[in-house]
TrEMBL record:
It comes from Chryseobacterium geocarposphaerae. The lineage of its organism: Bacteria, Pseudomonadati, Bacteroidota, Flavobacteriia, Flavobacteriales. It holds the Pfam family DinB_2. Residues 29-177 form the DinB-like domain. This is DinB family protein. Signal peptide: none annotated.
Length: 185
């Protein structure tokens, strides 16, 4: 898959993931606050976790995009585009809830400090940030910076792949929220 097709696919994935996350804010309080029998997070907590994870991933995405745009001056973008190949298999498990153990840092755990309206607004802003980075790097520049991602041993990934990771992370938690809702019903 070429990078331009990947960017288009990432935009589509982002829209679908963020639209689906947004729908969860409209659930009633019984569903949002239900504590699952496995002791896991409530949907309200999961939504906060998605926001927090996006927040920290977007710091890395911002740094990566700035570095990629600087690298554009010194590196051969056409050569990078020519030699790029996307390893879908590497990323597939990221979006699947329970596919592997995921130990998140403490700063990404929900603390209950924000209300749902704030979280919804912030997640919407994060979606637009992702789109802005994709627009900023519309010529393939995101290939010019790689950063290590330790989750599921992904290794060095480029800025586009980081954005895709962010979207897959949300997708992973959509399954978890669905499981919670099914337990309530």
């Amino acid at each position: 898959m070429d990078i331009f097709r990947l960017m288009k696919d990432i935009k589509t994935h982002l829209k679908l993931s963020f639209d689906e996350v947004n729908r969860w804010f409209d659930k009633d309080n019984e569903i949002l606050n239900f504590q699952p029998s496995n002791g896991g997070w409530t949907i309200r907590q999961i939504l906060e976790h998605i926001y927090l994870t996006n927040f920290y991933l977007l710091i890395l995405i911002e740094k990566g995009s700035k570095k990629a745009m600087r690298n554009y001056l010194d590196l051969d973008l056409n050569l990078e585009i020519e030699n790029y190949s996307f390893s879908q298999d590497k990323f597939e498990k990221v979006g699947k809830y329970g596919a592997f153990e995921w130990i998140r840092p403490e700063h990404m755990e929900p603390k209950g400090e924000l209300n749902l309206t704030e979280i919804r607004s912030l997640i919407s802003q994060q979606y637009h940030q992702c789109l802005n980075y994709l627009d900023l790097m519309k010529n393939g520049e995101g290939l010019l910076c790689k950063t290590t991602m330790t989750v599921n041993e992904l290794g060095k990934i480029n800025v586009y792949e980081y954005i895709y990771f962010l979207s897959l992370h949300a997708q992973r938690h959509l399954t978890q929220m669905t499981n919670n809702e099914l337990e309530v019903i």
